[in-house]
Design brief:
Elements lengths: L3 H12 L11 E4 L18 E4 L12 H4 L3 H13 L1 H21 L7 E11 L10 E17 L4 H67 L5 H36 L13 H7 L15 H22 L4 E12 L11 E10 L7 H67 L5 H35 L7
Antiparallel strand pairs: 1-2, 3-4, 4-5, 5-6
Helix pairs in contact: 3-5, 4-5, 5-6, 5-8, 5-10, 6-10, 7-10, 8-9, 9-10
């Protein structure tokens, strides 16, 4: 036993094969590069070619969140969220759970060794005793045992261990995806709150100006210089600005509550304005025509591939179930009727119990399990391909939004400037008695609407920069 068992164990560990299919990364039909400009976004997929998503090309540009979001207040919020957010904590605990499951499964590839010691005290009846009298005997045992170690000739345990490892890696990728998503959500909530704050400030300024205008119109109406229609129109415009300010105050408070939930703790009052156009351009200043294999940076794609690897390994375990399972149970020790003689010469004992189990009839269970494993692999392939396609579209959409919204911001800013200049000209004409007060009120209303729209478009431009960060896989640098 002392020479045979180690030899068999070494052969079993070194010669174990795997019946799992050889893993090959699926091909995907995507364009080799992202659109060069926004007008090409709709044709990128139609002109695609079949290519494997591979990380063999040049390294993707670094989009770590600290360099991407450079505003100090936002950086503090993101850092606090990464430390205190409960959803991210859950994702980290899921990793620990998956790591423990992998450790449990991988332990089956090594034999277990148990030490044991026992004392037995038993009474022998008189009819069983050679002396014709009942006797009380003692027995002491000590030894080492290796219980039912499976010789993994067909790779069943190896495949299960590989599947557990891939599941653990997929869980780790999911944690990274959760971190990127959290960073993007905090930035999105921050910019949303800043947009509401800026709109609220405009509404309050507009209300103050319209209240002053209403008071002047009221004084003019008292002396007959303005009509009741002018007074009511001015009052309507003033109350409209007041209602808009109240609505924006509510939305800003709700945006602050959403930001507090994401951060996981009370947040200081935010200050500052939305990032300007130059800052946004610097944030999203990535070269045009980014290679499509940059999507390898996305953790959700890497997680989908790890799930595919796990499904492939499970096929190997299902195939191995059709073949014999060989296990060994061995033990070595000593036995003695007295504790002092436990290790005396001649007290040694050993046992060697090989066991062979060959499935003959199982009602189709093994075949059904193999069919199930193959179907799950096909589902994993489909999920992997769909994840890549969705990611490619998200990047293309974010690049298109970057270009179009940038131009839209410029156009809307021109509208605001034109409306402000129009209001000044009408005020001069009103002072000269050429324009009516209704013209002034109409110009004020249109200027306020243009200012609010400008802030909304700027917020959408900020959101597009955040979407681009998330679509490109973000960054995990602390």
């Amino acid at each position: 036993m002392t020479k045979t068992t180690p030899t068999l164990l070494a052969v079993a560990l070194l010669s174990a094969c795997s019946l799992a299919p050889t893993y090959q990364r699926p091909l995907t039909t995507l364009a080799p590069a992202y659109p060069q400009d926004s007008t090409a976004a709709g044709t990128a997929v139609r002109t695609s070619v079949a290519l494997p998503i591979s990380s063999s090309t040049a390294a993707a540009p670094d989009t770590g969140w600290r360099s991407y979001f450079s505003e100090p207040a936002l950086q503090q919020l993101i850092a606090a969220a990464l430390e205190h957010n409960r959803d991210l904590r859950t994702a980290v605990l899921r990793i620990e759970e998956a790591r423990a499951l992998y450790d449990v499964q991988s332990a089956d590839r090594l034999p277990a060794l148990n030490a044991s010691g026992s004392m037995t005290r038993a009474k022998t009846p008189a009819f069983q005793s050679s002396s014709g009298q009942s006797t009380i005997g003692k027995r002491y045992d000590a030894g080492l045992a290796m219980p039912a170690f499976e010789l993994d000739f067909f790779g069943r345990v190896k495949s299960l261990s590989a599947a557990a490892l891939a599941s653990y890696l997929a869980t780790d990728e999911a944690r990274q995806a959760a971190q990127i998503s959290l960073v993007a959500q905090v930035a999105q909530a921050y910019y949303t709150e800043r947009a509401y704050a800026e709109q609220l400030s405009l509404a309050q300024q507009s209300y103050t100006a319209r209240a002053r205008s209403y008071q002047l119109t009221q004084q003019r109406a008292e002396v007959g210089a303005s009509s009741r229609l002018d007074l009511r129109s001015s009052e309507t415009l003033m109350e409209t600005a007041r209602a808009a300010a109240l609505s924006l105050a509510r939305q800003r408070a709700q945006a602050e509550n959403a930001l507090t939930l994401l951060v996981g703790q009370a947040t200081p009052a935010a200050s500052g304005a939305l990032p300007d156009q130059r800052q946004l351009d610097a944030m999203s200043a990535l070269p045009a025509g980014l290679p499509s294999d940059l999507l390898n940076r996305r953790p959700d794609i890497r997680a989908a591939e790890q799930r595919l690897k796990a499904a492939t390994a499970n096929i190997g375990a299902a195939r191995a179930a059709f073949f014999p399972r060989i296990s060994l149970t061995t033990s070595v020790g000593t036995s003695s009727p007295s504790l002092g003689g436990l290790f005396d010469s001649g007290s040694g004992s050993w046992s060697f119990v090989p066991q062979l189990s060959l499935p003959i009839f199982d009602g189709g269970r093994n075949r059904a399990n193999l069919s199930l494993a193959e179907t799950r692999q096909n589902l994993a392939v489909t999920d992997y391909e769909k994840t890549i396609q969705i990611a490619f579209r998200e990047v293309a959409d974010a690049l298109a939004a970057r270009d179009y919204l940038g131009e839209q911001v410029n156009a809307q800013r021109s509208i605001v400037e034109a409306q402000a200049d129009r209001l000044k000209l009408l005020q001069l004409r009103f002072e000269q008695g050429i324009a009516s007060s209704l013209d002034i009120l109409d110009a004020q209303r249109e200027l306020f609407s243009a200012q609010q729209t400008l802030v909304q478009v700027q917020q959408q431009r900020s959101a597009s920069a955040v979407d681009l960060y998330r679509a490109l896989g973000g960054g995990l640098q602390p």
